[in-house]
């Protein structure tokens, strides 16, 4: 599964198709916090499978940005 916004852009752009989770033997044993991620579950359909899970961090130089950024928009 692509991460976060990339997944949603692919789904909303109709670039990917839903998957049949019944064909994945271990699907029901995966951590529900990951399996039910909003980044690949849209409209009751599943568009991806979790591969890794970890934080997305935004670090910044406080001398350059005295006010902390409140979104990823400063990067893009």
UniProtKB/TrEMBL annotation:
InterPro entries: SBP. It holds the Pfam family SBP_bac_1. Gene3D superfamilies: Periplasmic binding protein-like II. The keyword Signal applies. SUPFAM superfamilies: Periplasmic binding protein-like II (SSF53850). Keywords: Signal. Transmembrane segments: none annotated. This is Extracellular solute-binding protein. It comes from human gut metagenome.
């Amino acid at each position: 599964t692509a991460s976060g916004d990339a997944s949603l852009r692919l789904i909303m752009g109709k670039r990917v198709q839903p998957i049949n989770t019944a064909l994945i033997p271990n699907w029901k044993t995966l951590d529900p916090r990951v399996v039910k991620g909003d980044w690949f579950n849209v409209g009751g359909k599943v568009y991806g499978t979790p591969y890794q899970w970890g934080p997305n961090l935004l670090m910044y130089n406080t001398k350059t940005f005295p006010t902390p950024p409140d979104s990823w928009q400063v990067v893009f």
